[in-house]
């Protein structure tokens, strides 16, 4: 049997059945964005993990619509060259762990009374029916208990549209790859960051993508998620419009000068001031919502930022001033053994955070 098979239980949960013969075979992280796929394979090395290979490739943005892969063959043709010849090193695994975009799934922490496993299944399904604006037959639902006391269970529930999940399964089938794990992209991001530097305080994790910013409040586990409908592309497009420049020129200005001190700073800040302030305002809103939601919510004390636009000069300093919290760029590469591979550039490093988190599932699935 070459491929994993998908089984839907009575509660709509996604099960990936993998033959035991593949139990010890390696996997790699496959982060599928809106127009870029990032891949990473790690292997255990001493007390840490060694990078076997990594790389990225672009594909047409119209291949994915509302999270659903509508043209898998177009993505296959764009990614096959990278799979056959990775940018750095080699990917030897035929199994993948992948993630779904946070904006397209539903996550909620449930407070429930203690109950047995069978009743918990039914209770989670009932909660999903109340809070998720999608009919249950159209969802895959999964959950895990994240905290338990004598009188309460805290359960993390995740629900994903079947149409999105099934389109991912079809893509990997066409790529001749076996799916062994599917999770939220923020779960992967948080795993990568916690492995690099344990988060010992309530922290806002912000993963800046091309079209959105995924947010999570991490306090021992992920307690809250949200999405801002603004991303790196919005900043690039704003520069193109306001400065009458090309896409390539706008990206060069964004990553080389950003909003940091330079002769271009007044023009760039005049262009990007509004969207950047909106980003910060939304982050403040999420922090306030979490801190106000209950007696057990600790104060958020720090922000960790990942994603390609996180390396834009001046962005972190601006965010710190706006939100009044210390901000650091996620360094998911910290502690990884590069072996003989070249070290990734500081501009490319943040884009691999999700792929690293997925690759860190090696040995756990």
The CATH superfamily of the largest domain is identified as ATPase, nucleotide binding domain
Question: Beta-sheet strand percentage?
Answer: 25-35%
What is the alpha-carbon Rg in Å?
21 Å
Uncertain stretches of 5 or more adjacent residues: 1-23
3D shape: globular
Q: Which structural class do the helices and strands define?
A: alpha/beta
Largest sheet: 7 strands, mixed
* Chain-averaged pLDDT: 87
Q: In CATH's first tier, which class of the largest domain applies?
A: Alpha Beta
Distance between the termini: 18 Å
Helix and strand succession? EEEEEEEHEEEHEEHEHEEEHHHEHEEH
CATH architecture group name of the largest domain: 2-Layer Sandwich
Number of helices: 9
Fraction in helix: 25-40%
What's the CATH topology name of the largest domain? Answer: Nucleotidyltransferase, domain 5
Spell out the blueprint of helices and strands.
Blueprint: E1 5-8, E2 14-17, E3 27-32, E4 36-45, E5 48-58, E6 64-65, E7 68-69, H1 72-84, E8 88-89, E9 95-100, E10 106-112, H2 117-131, E11 139-148, E12 153-161, H3 162-174, E13 178-184, H4 185-196, E14 203-208, E15 213-219, E16 221-228, H5 232-243, H6 247-256, H7 265-292, E17 302-306, H8 315-323, E18 327-329, E19 336-337, H9 353-359
Parallel strand pairs: 3-9, 5-19, 9-13, 14-17, 17-18
Antiparallel strand pairs: 1-2, 3-4, 4-5, 5-8, 6-7, 10-12, 11-12, 14-15, 15-16
